[in-house]
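Structure ticket #2291
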Amino acid sequence: MHSNEMISGITQAQNEPSTQEQERLYLSGMHCAACVQLIEFRLRQLPGVIKFTINVTSHRADVIWQSDKTSLKKILDAIVSLGYGALPSNQSPDEFEKKENKLALWRLFVAGFAMMQIMMYAFPAYLVPVPQPDGDLTPDLDKLLKLASMIIAIPVIGFSATPFFKSAWRDVRNRHVGMDVPVSLGILLTFFASVWATFHGGTVYFDSAIMFVFLLLGARYIESRVQKKTTAALRILTQLTPAMAQKISGYPDHRQMQVVDASVLMPGDILLVNAGESFPADGIVLEGTSECDESLMTGESLPVSKSVGSEVIAGAVNITGTLVVRALHVAGQTQLSALIGMMESAAAEKPPLVLLADKHASRFLVLILLIAFMSVVVWMQIDSSRALWIGISIIVVTCPCALSLATPGVMSAAIGLLAKNGVLITNGKVIQAMASATHFVFDKTGTLTVGKLRVVEMRHVVKNASHDVAEHLAFTLASYSSHPVSKAIADALSVNHSGLIAEEIAEINEMPGRGVEVRYDGKFYRLGNIDFVCEHHSSKLMISPDFANKTVSAIGDREQIFILFALEDVLRADAKEAIQHLMANGKQVLLLSGDRREVVQKIADECHITQAIGELSPQGKFEIVKKLQSTGASVVMVGDGMNDGPVLSLADVAVAMGQGAPISQSRSDLLLMSNRLTDLNFGFAVATKAFRLIRENLAWAVLYNALAIPAAVMGLLEPWHAALGMSLSSLIVVLNALRLYLITPPVHLMAE
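Resolution: structure written out below.
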């Protein structure tokens, strides 16, 4: 019996799901795509690690693990054992970064100073290649100059170049070929071959080795500075939320103030936010009036007024008055945290074209080493004195730093630039898809139009004893739905109806694109479009001519309609400009809506859209986009409402408005937080140029290697030529990413 209980207990323990934990880490010591591949590959092999992904631009890693199989300490130890640094998110990397930056500058200074000094000793050998006993450069003087060059080179090799050696040794130890393996081979072979030539005769290349180290250190330092610039938007966003918060206890009667860590706040906490301070959480205003700067979140440059009942977002700055706020979402649940997570995830993703290049990066390194070895063997037969130097030149000149840097800088610059202007990319593959888009499909309500419908007429079709019930029920159902039409009806009816009857209704069922059905007092009622409400009626209701070009909704039961609501919407001020810009760039523009044909056609005529279809169900939109894609079209879908969810999932690029329904935002690849359609044009321009820059960088990296490898193999390049070419190729790729900042954001129109 006891044995059976033990077996049962063990089985039960095995079947119990283990607790999952997650953490964000800061990594150091990474220099290229090969470093990222090595860390991710090894960490994913650890028992209990479910997910481990690195953002190469921000040097952050997200890890999820099973707590019963591993721990955060084991994960950190595994990273350190690979030769990299790692810190958990609760420890600031600022001090570490300052120390690393200072050390990098010292290494660069030593290499640069040595490079200037060594040229004095190397220059005579260039003027007199063969020393003569009775010449200007005697053998004794030549040897003395070589010894001086060697002494100057020792600090560079022993101090400035150590990061390359450490990284290369780490890669070799882990049976992995990274960028620093050929770099270190080139440096060490050049140095020790020159040492041998110093004592046994021959040409020395101490100056080339030092120049190589200096140029590579300089290139990496500039790369790190440029990467910090391109990730500035991400860094600023992560620093928006204040570390401390003023919490009010005993609100509203017995108020006691205490300063607490913002990370320990809970939903429902009452907070005091003074003028000039940032909001530590998403919340709702309980007291006070003020204006807030939400520009870094929404791209809206003008201050936003806040009063009792207004919502505030974490990271926004309170400008004028003091506000008392109830926290709704805190810590990792805030809108800001969600945006940061989506941006970092997007920055880590790569377009399909780039994934192909990354896949073959390690193979390219191995191939280069084989080419260098074979070249040495061949040149030993042709001219043995040049064989080693040619092999070194091949290794140095083809270091594929430019290939690995072709994408991260451009991606980070694009995502950061868009975020600063209210356009949030949530999927890195959008860059390529947006650049190659052929068709832009728009929804109407809340997308081309403001989405703030207003009821211009409420007509009672049947006025009897149940008319008051229908009106009250319409207010309840409209309040239940988040659709713009429902919100407008709720606003119109709120004057005469303040209370809901939610406790008496049952079987609420919202049908996307159609309306809401509910059972009340034994009968079924519907609020929505005419066809939906009249679905079970014996005869179809004829709409009055004076309701033409208006959005019409109704409430009724399965026998009759009680009330008709005529609503109007306003075209966005920038809609025409946005559509014309797309058309001018050769894009096909379509308008697909579930609204009545006359209303849809009116909006289409105003925007000069020739392809417009109304009265579409969500399935109808889905089928049209699917048909477009079957003909080879690349479709960008811009939507706002809940009924756009299916077609947004299907589109090549899904764009949602910032004020749109949560389901449309969750299925989007790009969010227009500013709610400006001109920002869609800006996003299209940035994506197009970013993808062009990525292709340029990849093309340059391929062309450079295609020219450099044959030149090095044929002996046309000296080691210092190779060092200069490799460093310049990397710098060109990194600096090319900054051309994105030449794109001028649009001058925004005032919101209605």
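Closing remark: The longest strand covers residues 20-28.
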